[in-house]
Amino acid sequence: MCGIAGYLSQNQSPPDRLAAVSRMNAAMVRRGPDDEGADTWGEATLGMRRLAIFDPAHGHQPMSTADGRWHLVFNGAIYNFRALRAELQAAGRSFHTECDTEVLLAAIAHWGEGCLNRLRGMFAFAAWDSQDHTLLLARDPFGIKPLYVHTTADGDLLFASELNGLLASGRVPAAIDPQAVSAYLGWLAVPAPQTIYRGVRSLRPGECAVWRAGRLDFKTYWSLRDAYASQDIRVTRSPAEFTAGLRAQLEDSVRAHAIADVPVGAFLSGGLDSTALVALMTRLGGARLKTFSLGFDEAGYSEADAAAANARYLGADHHASVLTGERVAADIGTILATLDQPTGDGINTYYVSQAARAGGVTVALSGLGADELFGGYPSFRNVALISRWLPVWHALPAFFRETLLARWERGDTRQRKLTDTLRHGDRRPAALALLQRRVFAESTRCSLLSPDAMCAYAPHPEEAALATELAGADLFALTSAAELRGYMTDVLLRDSDVMSMSQSLELRVPFVDRPLVTWLARQPTAFKYTPARPKSSLAFAARDLLPPDLLRRPKRGFTLPFARWMRGPLKPFLEETFSAASVERSGLFSPEAVQAHWRGFIAGRDTAEWSRVWSLAMLIAFVNRKSG
């Protein structure tokens, strides 16, 4: 795990480029406290910060091939590096370390861009070809690891693992993009390829790019279509065969993700996903597994007792931390400084990562991704329900539909969200699925922005791609894909990377594994998902390992007691953030609408509004920090 950076230019001198890359490295020190490096070859200067996971004594980057042609900086983990190493050795390649970086470098030198579909893992890398004077950039298929790029008017290229690192170069302007602000209000994040900064682009999941002679060209090398179209997967023919196959896939993924030359632990809650993961990890044997969870003083929110009970049953060495609103309030400035894009989520990951690192582990596994694959979110039921009633809706006279929409648009959060769904997604299943994650309704979103802002509706950037890739797919597949490529990528994975790396912790997500996702994509929906019992297929696959009472517990989402904290210890921060001077500072927001939203929350008129109010506060605070 590392932070990578680079500066390619025929206009700037090597010393100037090296100084800029060194500043980027320094800004990303928490991503890699174990080592750093930077070097120049022709017009390319590459740099890195290393968190040593495999072969800690070796693996310094940038790493170069023996012939001096290829030079690599790499962030992530390649879980099948030993199998690739054996294949490359058989082809005549030799190795001098036991780290995945050297194997990736050899794979690039041997197969070029073709290596990408051989890699199993999470990664973002840049490989400079000194012979052809080209740079290959790539991001893993699910966007677990980030990669941001900026091209100047005269063809220079800068890239980094973090936007904060990119800005530290001194060559990238920190100009907030008003369209990105608008997108954030819609999706709780700025979806790739856009970022919060004008002129800075994020590589999309499964995307690579080649820089040559001042031009950067992008290409998709893997998409969900490849998973659903794979002909190498046996389709199971019975529930029993599916359960056995899923268990084998899960064991294989956990085994691969648990490989490291440093201590490995896991996040553990009271729910199914992390408990199944820890159960499978424990089955691998070895040292007693360390697990970590968060609890709260507020009754009704904390899963600390359930997590502790799961840990006892599984024989884990469990570490529980109690998080309070006072602690979050004291840390909010540090958390804001950690963010390279605004988010209304991720606080839990920040603190449980902090606890895991303090508890002596360098790698932690998370159950993130199970809800997306096995139908754990309400969106799966909502999409099916709305789709079932759409023919009735379309049969209504147009004037009656418009009357209802106008009425619902003035209603509560749920009604406004339904209005947006029917206006923008009623005839496009991919849009319908993505719209389940819409944060602010269109009428509210537009009111929060400055009167000068352009407020046309913009679909999620993945909508068109999903409609094409999964044409003809059933609603479960479309909803799963929308959750994978929307909320999971935009919010969960991005926040997990930023928050865990702020604590120098490598976070791994075994459910977000290409072999597992591809295998599941080819299986019948009826085996994967039962509407009355979401995620029952996952539960059955690990049933013999799980605490007996776990399967009887109702599912509950992980929610921090923010609604209470926002009326208590966090209220001073929010009052300051929503003050007229603060809201007016950037010129992007409507003070009247923002303050009305805040007053409505304090008055308690809509209990579902706390998350929207918090996400709005984090956006305004972030924008003000950058415009200060």
Describe the structure.
- The structure is a single chain.
- With 628 residues, the protein is α+β, with helices and mostly antiparallel strands.
- The protein has 27 helices and 17 strands.
- Among the domains are: 2-221, Aminohydrolase, N-terminal nucleophile (Ntn) domain (Glutamine Phosphoribosylpyrophosphate, subunit 1, domain 1, 4-Layer Sandwich), CATH 3.60.20; 226-286 and 303-311 and 347-374 and 482-552, HUPs (Rossmann fold, 3-Layer(aba) Sandwich), CATH 3.40.50.
- The chain is 45% helix and 15% strand.
- A six-stranded antiparallel β-sheet has the order 2-3-1-9-8-10. The chain has a six-stranded antiparallel β-sheet with strand order 4-5-6-7-11-12, covered by helices on one side.
- Helix 11 crosses helix 19 (475-501) and helix 13 packs across helix 19.
- The longest helix has 27 residues, at 475-501.
- The radius of gyration is 24 Å and the shape is globular.
CATH fold field value of the domain at 2-221: Glutamine Phosphoribosylpyrophosphate, subunit 1, domain 1
CATH superfamily of the domain at 2-221: Aminohydrolase, N-terminal nucleophile (Ntn) domain
CATH architecture designation of the domain at 2-221: 4-Layer Sandwich
Radius of gyration: 24 Å
Rounded average pLDDT: 93
Portion of residues within helices: 40-55%
Level-1 CATH class name of the domain at 2-221: Alpha Beta
